[in-house]
């Protein structure tokens, strides 16, 4: 893991982390706006509790402070890849439901999807920097989900966006942890260890 | 054997003298003082529409033998109103605390029971020794979208009441105000004030969970505040202060990403640097010297004035002499 400890690698990591933090911050702000618009357009109750939906990665984590750098990157990457697929599906459903009638919401969804893809790529860069193999994406992605009713689709969308907003906050925290230099080597804590 | 009874304010209370018959001759006392017979119905003591001042020890004595037949401690109070509950995380991401109080006193002992549910999971809120009406919880999970539900039940001998709070992890995050706020003038800068502060000591990890700050300042003579939001750093230089005016300054903190602003810090006062007019300085010194002496006036030696370094250059001597003469003239007038 010598490469991970070199001064130039440490600088690149810090740079990638800072940019990632800014990306995640912007993404979160846009997701929160999208969430407000989505709730209103879909006629949902903002305070409705949505049961954990299958396939939506939960941001909730125990012992977050004990995670290694690699764990953080891998979990983040898996989550954003899942969100990429979920948002693409929501966009598709949106177009089917409303056609051109709600172009604003569609555009906002597409913009967030773009940011999610960019962030996933950013995470891959960080993993490559640590000479960690970037896990390949499974085949064609997850199997197509069962056809949901319109109302179920809307609730699912709410769940997706809420978890994405949480993930965006978590990612900022994760990247800050990653950016911390470790006292002895100057490398980020946990990244040199195997998972 | 002494009894204890609780009664509501405004209730009618009937006390029996133990196992004595209704028509027995008895004497009732309250806190050692005899109670007038008009309050008796046979051997029963009747207290109508009781108020708080009627709390005390009631004793019943058999008429002739003066044997104590019955004793009870009466406590007049009210059932609890809906309690006021507040939960807050000032030490994110470690956990949060909840504190409570009753809007009006009941005047009798109350017990509080608090339950915290996260989704389907019961959590234990550990009671603090001090202050009493407070408990704290450690977060087991972070970044959860599942809400927390806190229910506080208050019970006393006359009734019970409860209240519930539902919130999510981010909503209750509110740091304590910044500490050690210091404001100083900046030398040779009549419109600047340098303000510095520290993160609240209760915030466990400012490196991973950085705070941002809000500064507000105004001269004492005005009512409107100026505001500055600062996304990092724990100091700021105010550059638009009114020269010579005393300012009041406060700072608040917020987690960079979630939650709400803290309360304002303790206020500090500062006045920007002002240039000391040189001749005024020397006159002030002379006036102090002369007012201290009670004997006949003595002109202060001019060397003394000039030694203070208040003036420089060759024109100095003339200025010093002139100042000395002017002050001497004034001093003569005042004596």
TrEMBL record, chain A:
Of the GO CC terms on this record, one is: extracellular space
Q: What start and end residues bound the annotated signal peptide? A: none
List the subcellular locations.
Cytoplasm
What is a GO molecular function of this protein? Answer: ciliary neurotrophic factor receptor binding
What are the entry keywords? Cytoplasm, Developmental protein, Differentiation, Growth factor, Neurogenesis
Q: Which domain of life is it from?
A: Eukaryota
Q: Pfam families recorded for this chain?
A: CNTF
GO biological process annotation, one example? ciliary neurotrophic factor-mediated signaling pathway
Q: Which InterPro entries match?
A: 4_helix_cytokine-like_core, Ciliary_neurotrophic_fac_CNTF
Query: Does this UniProt record's set of keywords contain Glycoprotein?
Result: no
Q: Does the keyword GTP-binding apply?
A: no
Function of the molecule: CNTF is a survival factor for various neuronal cell types. Seems to prevent the degeneration of motor axons after axotomy.
Query: Which protein family is named in the record?
Result: Belongs to the CNTF family.
Q: What is this protein called?
A: Ciliary neurotrophic factor
Which species is the source of this protein?
A: Tychaedon coryphoeus (Karoo scrub-robin)
**Upper taxonomic lineage:** Eukaryota, Metazoa, Chordata, Craniata, Vertebrata
* Gene name, Swiss-Prot/TrEMBL: Cntf
UniProtKB/TrEMBL annotation, chain B:
* Record family assignment: Belongs to the type I cytokine receptor family. Type 3 subfamily.
Show the stretches that span the lipid bilayer: 310-333
GO cellular component, alphabetical, reads: ciliary neurotrophic factor receptor complex; CNTFR-CLCF1 complex; external side of plasma membrane
Record-annotated Fibronectin type-III domain positions = 177-277
Keywords for the protein's UniProt record, in alphabetical order: Cell membrane, Disulfide bond, Glycoprotein, GPI-anchor, Immunoglobulin domain, Lipoprotein, Membrane, Receptor, Repeat, Signal, Transmembrane, Transmembrane helix
Q: What topology in the membrane does the UniProt record assign?
A: Lipid-anchor; GPI-anchor
**Gene3D superfamilies given in the database record:** Immunoglobulins (2.60.40.10)
Q: Name one GO molecular function term.
A: interleukin-11 receptor activity
Q: Which organism is it from?
A: Tychaedon coryphoeus
Annotated Ig-like domain residues: 10-60
Per UniProt, subcellular location reads as:
Cell membrane
Annotated InterPro entries: FN3_dom (IPR003961), FN3_sf (IPR036116), Hematopoietin_rcpt_L_F3_CS (IPR003530), Ig-like_dom (IPR007110), Ig-like_dom_sf (IPR036179), Ig-like_fold (IPR013783), Ig_sub2 (IPR003598), Type-I_Cytokine_Rcpt (IPR050379)
Q: What is this protein called?
A: Ciliary neurotrophic factor receptor subunit alpha
GO biological process annotations for this chain's record? positive regulation of cell population proliferation
Chief location category:
membrane
- List the SMART domains: FN3, IGc2
What's the domain of life for this entry? Eukaryota
